[in-house]
Design a protein that fits this description.
Blueprint: E1 4-9, H1 13-23, E2 28-34, H2 38-45, E3 54-56, H3 59-63, E4 70-73, H4 80-89, E5 93-97, H5 104-117, E6 121-124, H6 131-138, E7 146-154, H7 159-164, H8 184-196, E8 201-208, E9 214-222, E10 228-234, E11 243-247, E12 250-254, E13 264-267, E14 275-276, H9 287-299, H10 302-325
Parallel strand pairs: 1-2, 1-4, 2-3, 4-5, 5-6, 7-10
Antiparallel strand pairs: 7-11, 8-9, 9-10, 11-12, 12-13, 13-14
Helix pairs in contact: 4-5, 8-10
């Protein structure tokens, strides 16, 4: 089977990682690079001389390239919806970096279009495809009745220094659909939805910064089974806390919510016990998700498309709901 000829929108580090890791699967070829500036597209393409991708500064031209089967979109959040809509409308599979959309209404429109065109739309949540994250999920029965969980992702952004100087970088700009909740926060939310399903209620306590956006915050999810999940995400401080799941029989722990090195089981009935359940982590940390994206596209696995659509809907319902409740409004919202 010929490789999936991939076009990319966005030329930042995440696109570089996705492309370089996806190429190692043998399932992809880099067919096109889009950037608003020719020199930026050339600089990105120069990293992959063997691929010889076409270069575009026009989205219309990229959409019209019949040789491109799929497009990976990793542009600023504000542009995800319109760019995905255009590529899906052109009959291309779309791998859309998180957050796929700002609202569930946007997500409705994108999936309806994808199904009408018989192409795949999938949101790129790399961590839930990691082998050790899957081990964590499979190990949930060990804890017995769930009593709660705490999931954490705090990573200081150098752009916060710009905020402290009175500037408004895009990542902290509501006008660009920015803020910590829809950045690092999506990692812990996506993990919670994957592990426990969609909660009954969600309440967010944001750390609002000078730009008006959230620099971080704490999100409390309540579940009908009677347990709570506390999520902490931040781009204004680092956290070194593990993420843990608590049950009547013991505790499961991972050192980080993404790039999971190991999974530790601590049996409550055996004081001081620690059992390592995880395996070796894939060092190319986007390879596992890229391989699954390729499989879904090649096999036209609509069951998995629907499965990940349900997951994306669970995530966006949380983010949209708590954003609006806290006045973290994006363009066009009131």
């Amino acid at each position: 089977m010929a490789p999936i000829n991939l076009g990319v929108i966005g030329t930042g580090w995440i696109t570089d990682d996705y492309v370089s890791h996806a190429l190692t699967t043998g399932k992809f070829a880099l067919g096109a690079v889009y950037s608003r500036k020719t020199e930026t597209a050339q600089a990105f393409a120069s990293k992959y001389p063997a691929q010889k991708p076409s270069l575009y500064t026009s989205l219309d031209a990229l959409a019209g390239d019949a040789a491109i089967n799929a497009v990976y979109i990793a542009s600023p959040n504000l542009y995800h919806f319109a760019q995905a809509k255009q590529m899906l409308g052109a009959g291309k599979h779309v791998i859309l970096e998180k957050p796929a959309a700002a609202t569930e209404k946007q997500l409705d429109e994108l999936f309806a279009l994808a199904y009408s065109k018989k192409v795949v739309l999938v949101e790129a949540f790399r961590h839930v495809h990691e082998a050790n994250f899957k081990i964590l999920k499979r190990s949930l029965p060990k804890v017995g009745k769930l009593l709660g969980a705490s999931l954490t992702f705090g990573q200081y952004s150098s752009r916060f220094q710009n905020v402290l100087r009175g500037e408004t970088p895009a990542v902290f700009d509501l006008k660009m659909a920015g803020g910590a909740l829809v950045d690092l926060g999506v990692y812990v939310i996506a993990a919670a939805v994957e592990l426990f399903g969609e909660p009954e209620t969600s309440v967010y306590y944001p750390i609002k910064i000078a730009t008006g956006a959230d620099g971080g915050g704490t999100l409390v999810l309540t579940y009908k089974e009677g347990f709570n999940v506390v999520l902490t995400a931040s781009k204004v401080f680092n956290s070194y806390a593990p993420s843990e799941i608590y049950g009547e029989k013991g505790t499961l722990s991972i050192p980080t919510i993404t790039d999971v090195e190991t999974v530790t089981w601590m049996d409550a009935s055996r004081k001081g016990s620690r059992e390592e359940l995880g395996g070796e982590r894939e060092k190319l940390n986007l390879k596992e998700e890229a391989a699954e994206h390729a499989r879904i596209i090649e096999e036209a696995d609509w069951d998995q498309v629907k499965r990940w659509e349900t997951h994306s809907r669970g995530v966006v319902r949380i983010t949209e709901g708590v954003r609006r409740a806290n006045g973290l409004l994006f363009p066009g919202e009131s």
